[in-house]
């Protein structure tokens, strides 16, 4: 350590890059592996909207009309009639075997009852244990039956002397114009893929920072040497974590490039603000990981903490199940993770194109998490670099 | 036999002596049992806040708003004069959606003309959007049907015929299993299958990755101990936990274990294969900790298997959870019986046999990577 020019951020940064490059296993975990997982997620949701979901029909009527109903259900793009079964118990067997996600049950004498104005009942059974798929099946089958009923209703009205126009209006007196904002096709890539990729990356970032920091704590005096290399604690930390920050920033942007580029969702936000938010997110996650690495006595324990905090994070962010329906504990847990404000900011500043002012609370929240975890990490590095406290720090963990 | 029991006791003590293994295979499951279900304990979304823009101000429009507000899923929290006002509240995240009732809504409705309304919501949040959309559609449908029925009967149509004209067939939608459409009931039982798999694999990684091979008797005893321990965790997470969170169970415990034991065999064997391939304990834990979310989606519980690329799913099926998650849910939550999951049971046994063979071959090849730390070696 001769010249001061040989210290500082740059020195620690170069050392870290050399470490990554020289350890093949570490490199594989940092670069090809996250790419593989992002690819797996993208491939999983590649179809964007589920189509041709298998359903069974139990047609106990066997009339012209019931066959028409079956045809209309089969023609719905969301559904495919894969089985025509004689009774409900057979259909139920197919449902619990996951061969079908729903059952359409047409009762005997349906056509006759319908013509006699007796309002026969058609039942759609859907598997609500598979909530999303069951919901799609119920909605799609309901819509197909609804248009069948509308057709019948129009014929009935016309037979009662109404004009075609009157009949048309009478069938649907209050049409509801649906505006699914920012995701008009109800596309799952915009919903699950776009939010699950940052969730996976949050785990990667925290776990990488844990491993990086733990390496300096392996031997006595390691932390003092580390701080000396950096010139001071914060320079050392930045130099150490910057290589990971760069890798994961590119991955995070790559993930959004898949959503906005490959799947063609319109990017409505302010690019500068978006880049700032992603930089803050990665920094906050690195700080959290560093903090966890510094409080745990071994890299394995640190990885364990990171896993318990971040692995279930996707459930707490409020995309799949909204935060407004969560209890206080879940809200607080989610609030402690950088992912929660980041995904809110990402939606504001990439998807919705909201006014920057609207995003200030979430931005402040993310900055506060970064400051909190970064500040704690800095304090711990300083303390553990003091020669007389190294052993005490190691013991107390 | 006593030799085996002694070896098992040693393996169990070794697990308890290693802090990281204890944290992974004991503490984390208790923690996850408390933490993981928390977001979903309310099960369903109620009273999603929406704003209304009532440009008509008639008794019919007020009736419609009252009906929307009366639904379980939506609450009308703001009445605003213009659409931009509603948009401002939406972007500030104070409301999740809006309903616009145009001028002349009532007149058009009573004249028998189509009288449309508009509903807005962020479709990036599926549950919220579907709550709003369903509530508004059903309120509008009910009001429209009533107005129609009154018009027809007032014109002298027989009430029964009028009813049939408005709605010629009754369409019922019945949820089989999880009847209230609860989110915890849907996600918690499935997620814990994955949590058990991941923590078991990690625990094996912590205790065995990068370690010199044990004596033969230890190589049999250790997996047995983990399977017994996780057999206990199966009862905790698949029987006790659903009970604690009010999640319905239709399957019997015998059926549960008929599936769980092959699953645990497959996971344990996979764990030993991974442990012998992993360059270090840290690398194995790192690999596993980031895998959860993709593995959950690929299991088909939330996104249909039919919509995934076949080759991807076929490769993923080499991981036990891919086929096991829905099988557990079918047996436990849907009461499917064992016949409906026999294919999965056989597949788990095939995986168990395949991975056991692979682990034995790798072991025979022998690859001492790192000496055991002394504290683990001591008995």
TrEMBL record, chain A:
Transmembrane segments: 25-45, 191-213, 245-265, 271-295, 302-321, 362-381
Keywords: Cell membrane, Membrane, Transmembrane, Transmembrane helix
Record keyword Membrane present: yes
One Pfam family recorded for the sequence: ABC2_membrane_3
GO cellular component, one term: plasma membrane
Bilayer disposition of the protein: Multi-pass membrane protein
Domain ABC-2 type transporter transmembrane: 26-379
Predominant subcellular localization, coarse grouping: membrane
InterPro entries referenced in this protein's UniProt entry, alphabetically: ABC-2_transporter_component, ABC2_TM
GO molecular function annotations of the record: ABC-type transporter activity
UniProt subcellular location: Cell membrane
Protein known as: ABC transporter permease
Automatic annotation (TrEMBL), chain B:
Localization: Cell membrane
Range of residues in the leader sequence: none
Name of this protein: ABC transporter permease
Molecular function per GO: ABC-type transporter activity
Protein keywords: Cell membrane, Membrane, Transmembrane, Transmembrane helix
Domain annotation ABC-2 type transporter transmembrane: ranges: 25-361
Protein's membrane topology: Multi-pass membrane protein
Transmembrane segments annotated in the record for this chain: 123-145, 157-177, 183-207, 219-244, 256-278, 285-305, 311-331, 338-362
A GO CC annotation given for this chain: plasma membrane
């Amino acid at each position: 350590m001769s010249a001061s020019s040989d210290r500082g951020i740059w020195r620690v940064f170069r050392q870290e890059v050399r470490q990554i490059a020289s350890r093949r296993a570490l490199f594989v975990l940092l670069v090809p592996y996250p790419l593989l997982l992002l690819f797996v997620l993208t491939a999983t949701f590649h179809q964007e909207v589920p189509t041709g979901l298998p359903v069974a029909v139990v047609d106990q009527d066997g009339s012209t009309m019931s066959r028409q109903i079956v045809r209309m259900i089969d023609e719905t793009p969301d559904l495919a009639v894969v089985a025509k079964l004689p009774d409900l118990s057979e259909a139920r067997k197919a449902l619990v075997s996951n061969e079908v996600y729903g059952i359409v049950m047409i009762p005997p004498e349906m056509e006759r009852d319908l013509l006699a104005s007796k309002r026969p009942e058609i039942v759609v059974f859907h598997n609500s244990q598979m909530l999303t798929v069951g919901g799609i099946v119920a909605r799609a089958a309901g819509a197909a039956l609804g248009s069948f009923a509308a057709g019948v209703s129009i014929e009935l009205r016309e037979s009662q002397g109404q004009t075609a126009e009157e009949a048309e209006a009478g069938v649907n007196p209050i049409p509801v114009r649906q505006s699914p904002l920012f995701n008009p096709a109800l596309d799952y890539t915009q919903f699950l893929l776009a939010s699950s990729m940052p969730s996976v990356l949050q785990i990667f970032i925290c776990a990488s920072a844990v491993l990086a920091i733990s390496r300096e704590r392996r031997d006595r005096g390691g932390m003092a040497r580390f701080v000396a290399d950096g010139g001071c604690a914060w320079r050392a930390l930045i130099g150490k974590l910057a290589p990971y920050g760069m890798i994961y920033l590119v991955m995070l942007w790559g993930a959004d490039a898949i959503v906005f580029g490959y799947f063609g969702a319109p990017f409505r936000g302010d690019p500068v603000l978006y880049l700032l938010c992603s930089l803050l997110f990665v920094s906050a996650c690195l700080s959290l990981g560093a903090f966890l690495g510094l409080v745990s006595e071994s890299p394995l324990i640190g990885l364990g903490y990171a896993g318990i905090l971040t692995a279930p994070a996707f459930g707490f962010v409020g995309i799949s199940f909204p935060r407004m329906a969560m209890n206080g504990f879940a809200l607080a847990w989610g609030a402690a993770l950088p992912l929660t404000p980041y995904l809110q900011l990402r939606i504001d500043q990439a998807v919705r194109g909201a006014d920057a002012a609207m995003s200030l609370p979430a931005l402040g929240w993310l900055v506060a998490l970064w400051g909190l975890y970064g500040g704690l990490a800095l304090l711990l590095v300083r303390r553990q670099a003091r020669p007389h406290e190294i052993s005490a720090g190691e013991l107390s963990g | 036999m006593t030799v085996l029991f002694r070896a098992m006791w040693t393996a169990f003590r070794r697990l308890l002596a290693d802090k990281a293994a204890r944290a992974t295979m004991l503490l984390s499951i208790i923690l996850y049992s408390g933490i993981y279900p928390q977001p979903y304990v309310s099960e369903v979304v109620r009273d999603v806040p929406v704003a209304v823009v009532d440009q008509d101000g008639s008794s019919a429009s007020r009736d419609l708003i009252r009906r929307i507000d009366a639904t379980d899923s939506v609450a009308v929290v703001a009445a605003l004069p213009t659409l931009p006002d509603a948009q401002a509240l939406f972007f500030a995240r104070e409301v999740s959606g809006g309903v616009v009732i145009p001028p002349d809504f009532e007149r058009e409705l009573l004249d028998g003309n189509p009288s449309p309304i508009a509903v807005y919501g962020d479709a990036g949040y599926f549950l919220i959007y579907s709550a709003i959309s369903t509530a508004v559609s059903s309120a509008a449908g009910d009001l429209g049907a009533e107005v129609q029925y009154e018009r027809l009967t007032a014109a002298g149509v027989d009430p029964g015929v009028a009813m049939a004209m408005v709605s010629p067939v009754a369409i019922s939608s019945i949820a089989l299993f999880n009847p209230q459409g609860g989110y915890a009931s849907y996600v918690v039982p499935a997620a814990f299958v994955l949590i058990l798999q991941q923590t078991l694999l990690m625990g094996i990684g912590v205790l065995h990755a990068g370690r010199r091979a044990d004596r033969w008797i230890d190589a049999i005893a250790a997996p047995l101990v983990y399977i017994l321990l996780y057999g206990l965790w199966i009862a905790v997470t698949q029987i006790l936990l659903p009970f604690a969170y009010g999640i319905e169970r239709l399957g019997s415990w015998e059926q549960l274990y008929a599936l769980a034991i092959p699953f645990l065999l497959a996971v344990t064997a996979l764990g030993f294969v991974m442990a012998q391939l992993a360059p270090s304990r840290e690398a194995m834990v790192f690999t596993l900790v980031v895998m959860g979310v993709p593995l959950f989606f690929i299991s088909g519980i939330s996104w249909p298997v039919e919509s995934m690329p076949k080759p991807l799913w076929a490769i993923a099926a080499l991981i036990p959870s891919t086929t096991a998650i829905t099988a557990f849910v079918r047996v436990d939550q849907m009461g499917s019986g064992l016949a409906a999951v026999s294919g999965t049971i056989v597949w788990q046994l095939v995986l168990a046999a395949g991975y056991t063979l692979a682990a034995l071959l790798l072991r025979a090849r022998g690859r001492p990577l790192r000496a055991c730390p002394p504290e683990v070696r001591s008995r």
